[in-house]
## 1
Amino acid sequence: MRSSLARWASYGATGLTLVFGTALLVSFVAQSLPVWRHEGLAYVTGSVWHFRSEQFGVLPMIYGSVVVSIVALALAAPLAVGAAIWSAEYLNGRNRWWFKVPIELLAGIPSVVYGLLGVLLLRNWIYELFERFEPLSGDTLLTAGVLLAVMILPTVMTLADDALRGVASSQRRAARALGFTQAEGVLRVSLPQAAPGLVAALLLGLGRAMGETIAVFLVVGRQDSQADYGLRSWLEAGQTLTSKLGSSETFLAYGDPLHWSAIVGLGLVLLALVLSLTLAAGRWLPETGLARNRRA
Amino acid sequence: MRRTFALLVAGVLAGVPAAAALRVIGSTTVNPVVSEAAAILRAEAGLEIQVDTAGGSSGGIAALADGRAEMAMVSRPIKVADRQRFPGVDFRSTTIGADALALVVSADVWSAGVRCLSREQVRGLYERRIARWSEVGGPDRQVVFFNKEPGRGTWEVFADWLYGGVEATPMVSHPEVGSNEEARSKVASTRGAITQLSAAWADGVRTFALGLCETGLPVAHPTRAAVAAGDYPLSRPLTVVTDGPPVGVARRLIDFVLGGRGQALVTRHGYLPLSQANGEGGHP
């Protein structure tokens, strides 16, 4: 009796989650229909966003989101994984606690605080550091990327640490017994074994970077309609999907069906971006994990 | 674990504000006056008033229209377009003062000698035809135009003045700024920067308000005296807007702001009190 109750409760919860998820997706698609009809595929390939002339091209924002996330991950990944290796493989007991708890606390700092630090410090640093490239101001895609790197660092680090701690210590002992040094043990045994968990940690960080709004909003410059997509654009003001969604244009759009649908469409594109990333990783992940395990 | 959860719930509940009797949303230009008036009324009369600046003037109007606020702060006149967009709302705006809108530049531009711009020069800067300050007598540095977000009262007043209407304003791509605080801090920390900002917000240390100059005419400075005399063209009313005639707490707030102490707040924040604002003000 009791177990069937638990079973039904869990079925119910799962069903409800599915219903909500699907309803969300359906309402996003339905509400963004006018802009798809208006723009067609040009909605995601067009590079001009000007709502007064009813032009809605989201490419600059997709570009901005991708660039800031890549910068964030490229900077955060080596630091986070490195710190995780140190914490999981070289520290023990109390030392590890002292190392890990402050970092986990960092993960709990509200993003607006990071955003304000970005405004106060980071944008000026970037502005002065790259002065000879004549950036227009300190609000650049690069600034947003660096800020996001700082923000996702604790999350990625603590999850990577968990993944490494999950590797059975018998494996490590076996490596030592075979004459591996500790460094070799980390490289040949722990890292390959923990690979799926590490990739999951990086993906979670990437997801957070893509979805982060307020901190990015404060330092990205919020310039629609990117002119070029070269490396130079990293030092220019840009726009991400989330910073556009966070702008006061949403208040203007409210009440105008086409404009509103263009705004909702941004959410849909962001959802699609994160979803496809997760699905791609989900396909790729278990195979590498299993393959390594089989070999090991 | 359970204690942590309880703490979490308590924290979330504490974060939820109690339902206020009057919610005010809108312009960051009007905000300092209304916020301080609300603080005084809270302390002295125990009135519950909540003031927020999400979305600027248009954000305030939208909030008023869909019931998220009982009063909007709007730093521009209510337009036909607003009434068309929200036909169900009976906009009643009360002018509480006036303000000079200026082009505000960073210290390096000011100290190189740029003191005023003509309308044609402002157009050139806005449309990026003028890309370096040296073209208008400033330093040899690129122009960084921090454009106020569309929907901000400041931006709409600027567009009306420069192009005769929001619709006629050409498409440009600039970095955007939202609140007055953001505009000021970004101009202060960027070389060669310019933005549209309430003149009262330029601190004269790191941000400077330019005058407007047409050939053959004396320079019009964005000062209170010039606005009062009608010599400065880029002035605008500061208003609070209600749906229908203001009643209850809204009425009390408006009466306070229009009274002596309220008008003193208007003056203290660098704006023009009603007595000097060309008789634009008064009750709806």
Note: Residues 257-295 of chain A form the longest helix (39 residues).
## 2
Amino acid sequence: MDRYYPLLPIGIGLCSLVWLVRDIVAAWLLGRRGERAEGTIVGYAETNSTSRMIVRFRTEEGEEVLALHDNSSWSAARYGDPVTVSYDPDNPQRARVVAAPWLSLWPRTLFLTVASGILLIGCFLGFLTWG
Amino acid sequence: MQLRKFANPWCLLCGAVAGGLAWAVTLPVWAAFVIAVIIWLTAVLVFGFLFPTAPSETELPADPVAVDAGCARRAHAAAVSLQDVAAPFLEGPLGDRVSRIVWRAGEIAASIDHLVRRSQELSALVHNLAQHPHSRGRARYVESRHAEIRRRMYAATRDLEAAVPRFLATASPGAAPDVAALDRLATDLENIGYGVDIGESMVTEILGPEPPRTPQAPAN
């Protein structure tokens, strides 16, 4: 198994990048196909490991929806903050906050940098081991 | 060992990347898994069976004992050749440089010869260690060091053989010698000797210093 140890950093980097790409693609698809609505932050759904924002908004049909949004920002939103969400008209629970004062590109950039670094280190080790 | 081709890490990676990308573009997990398997098997088929890459020079040969013996012969022949082509220059103005080159080449050949002899002891040690479950870790370590020593031997032999035409190119009888090129060759030979010396220290670290040879009894 000594031969396969570079797969560990490669796997970690790859999984992180794939997760990031999936997140971006999902946001892009929702933004393209989804409807937009104004909403407000009404609290947090907390578990032992995660904390997701609960956003309340009203669909075009007038249905009031409470949806969860991953908190991927440096600063957290406060109760009552106004936000813009994009939601799937067929399943309004699938909603993401697309515009808010606290949304930032930095977390994704940092994640991308760290994941790419780990992946590159793994590839270099792989090159040395398997090259 | 066809099964080893399926365990090629690069092919596994191809499959993993394809499957990951498929999942990332929101395909279901089962579909991403199927794509990963298809890409992995395709990579094995293409790079393992249809267009297999030639083994690299750093890869160890199938019969290392025979290659080791040939290595010592080639190194010795290269050192002798270098001595022959350098002989006309030993008395000239470049005599010091040339004699140093010749001496270093002989030292490298002697070191390679010594490493080849001790390489057989290392093989025996690996074999013995691998017999006992509690010493398999040590066996793997010795095996990896042995592989490194062999790589150094083969690389040094190749470089020593290449030194002969290099010397002829820099100093041929009747032409003005290229002193700078000669100095570069001398430096390279020092580096080659240094690499072989590291191999010797690896052997000594594992096997300990070589016991002195028992002198042969004089013939009556």
Note: The mean pLDDT of chain A is 85.
